[in-house]
Amino acid sequence: MDKRFDVIIVGSGAGGGTLARCLAPSRKNILILERGDWLKREAQNWDAEAVFQRNRYVSPDTWYDRDGQPFQPQVHYFVGGATKMFGAALYRLRHEDFGELRHHDGTSPAWPITYEELEPYYAQAELMYHVHGLRGHDPTEPPASGPYPCPPVSNEPRTQKLFDDLTAADYHPFPAPCAIMLDEQNMAYSTCIRCQTCDGFPCLVHAKADAEIVGVRPALTFPNVTLLRNAKAIKLETNAAGTAVTSVVAEVAGEKEVFRGDIIVVSCGAANTAKLLLMSASDKHPNGLANGSDQVGRNYMFHNSQAVLAISREPNPTMFQKTIALNDFYFGMEGFGYPMGNIQMTGKSLGPMYRGEKPLETALLPIGLLNELAQHAVDFWLTTEDLPDSQNRVTVDRSGNLTLSYTPNNQVPQQKLFEKLKSMLSHLGMHPEHLIPRNIYMKTAIPIAGCAHQAGTCRFGTNPKTSVLDTNCKAHELGNLYVVDTSFFVSIGAVNPSLTAIANAIRVGDHLLQRLA
Q1: Residue 442 confidence (pLDDT)
Q2: What is the CA radius of gyration of the chain?
Q3: CB distance 307 to 439 below 8 Å
Q4: Which of 483, 423, 493 is CA-nearest to residue 459?
Q5: Which residue blocks in 398-449 are alpha helix, DSSP H?
Q6: How confident is the model at residue 466 (pLDDT cuts 50, 70, 90)?
Q7: pTM score
Q8: Within 13 Å, how many C-alpha atoms sit on residue 276's CB side?
Q9: Partners of residue 469 on adjacent β-strands
Q10: 3-class DSSP state of 27
């Protein structure tokens, strides 16, 4: 393999995989380094016991919390990154999320770019990722230049009843934006089959619009794009002046290999991107690469999230449940004037999931009883914004051990959102006393292990003293180093961050195409 490239992209998830597709037509020599392999297509992809009880697709890794206690993060190192297991919920941040926003526990800072600047790239991202949805029903939705590229995913009878009941109660449910390759008008030729094993599962039939399927694979159809799997980047090396990255050092098949590039793009996920930069310290960058501001690793966010199930008075035989969302309380409610967040459906819970999530509590319960519970479950995901805090951070010791120090904040609106949903249930055909918190992050009670929405460790901005990246997501201190995962987030809002990462990768891709030209 030629080890000199015009562009090296480290990581192939929502940021890196998308960027690779954007740059592929440039004819420039592009290398994608991915620490994982293809996620194997196998029957276990759709086996709830294998996925949730045996953690079959959780990559082996050990991080440490602020007290030095080890835990296994719920990370997935595959081509396509975390999107291989995501629920395909692709929401735009609200227009207000780009400005300074007052919360119960403090202020969410303004972004250095406006929603209007990102909007065209949101539209391109929705097209690239086959997003289904319908404008005009979400009272908080930001302006859009056009409709969703795909029609909303239809509701099955139980979820349609929920939609109708919410509407009758003067709420404003709307079709959840969903990135799946579904053609309901021609199901005989539809890639997606509307199964129950989507959210939190890999897709056996490649119908989920993840970064492998719509990013990496299309990029690889160009002869100038190379993917090297099982290649873990361990250090970035610079020139003598420390002004540019010259090479990426990676472990490949147990050996160190050096890949030289003119432009280096890091997209390893917020925690691992910070780790790579910190591990790349040198005489010119003693605190870590691009870390003259001492901001690398700081302001880690991952949402205040709650997965809960409500027990329906009638069975819920829904197959594809993730079709409804509610933002009525995104910015607060009467009597509570602070943002609370988003309510959406999750994938349909199945009996083996409960055993994986609560192994001790369910050990003596027969699986038939758990399946019966699942048959009456209606599953919700509640998201409240957590605020950037410089002490919530990633650090790395000399051995490369990653410590994630995190103190929760903005907990009151999280509880308010839970209580509001609970108060609504009796009007929705469910038992209000049976709203059960779910630990969907399986065999650990450590909240920070659930890092699917991690963001914010290399924030972008105009001031090099308070940010790591400029507004093009180039490191302030290096002329050719970019970051395109969720590390660049200044705040996280209260919706899934994937679409914003994808849109930003397309935006940075436009900038890089001009630079490469």
Answers
A1: 33
A2: 22
A3: yes
A4: 483
A5: 411-424
A6: very high
A7: 0.96
A8: 29
A9: 460, 475
A10: coil
Contacts with 262 (C-beta within 8 Å, 6 or more apart), sequence order: 5, 6, 7, 480
CA within 13 Å, CB half, 124: 20
Mean pLDDT of 463-485: 98
Identify the bridge partners of residue 180 per DSSP, sorted by sequence position: 208
Contact 467, 459 (CB under 8 A): yes
Give the model's confidence band at 444: pLDDT under 50 very low, under 70 low, under 90 confident, else very high.
very low
Please tell me the predicted confidence (pLDDT) of residue 356: 67
The encoded tokens of residue 148 equal 């969703």
The DSSP call for residue 404 is E
| Residue-range domain boundaries for the chain | 4-516
**Does residue 271 contact residue 486 with C-beta atoms inside 8 Å?**
no
H or E stretch at 378: strand 377-384
Three-state SS across 155-197?
Answer: CCHHHHHHHHHHHHCCCCCEECCEEECCCHHHHHHCCCCCCCC
- Rounded to whole angstroms, the Cα distance separating 510 from 517 reads 11
Residue 161 has pLDDT above 50, yes or no: yes
Terminal Cα-to-Cα distance of the chain (whole angstroms): 25
* Residue bearing tokens 């420390």: 242
pLDDT over 80 at 145, yes or no = yes
Residues 258 and 475: beta-carbon distance below 8 Å: no
Tokens 């202020």 label which residue?
107
Beta strand 304-312 with 377-384 is: antiparallel
Residue 390 pLDDT: 98
Superfamily (CATH) of domain 4-516: FAD/NAD(P)-binding domain (3.50.50.60)
Q: Is the pLDDT of residue 441 over 80?
A: no
Tokens of 51: 């996925």
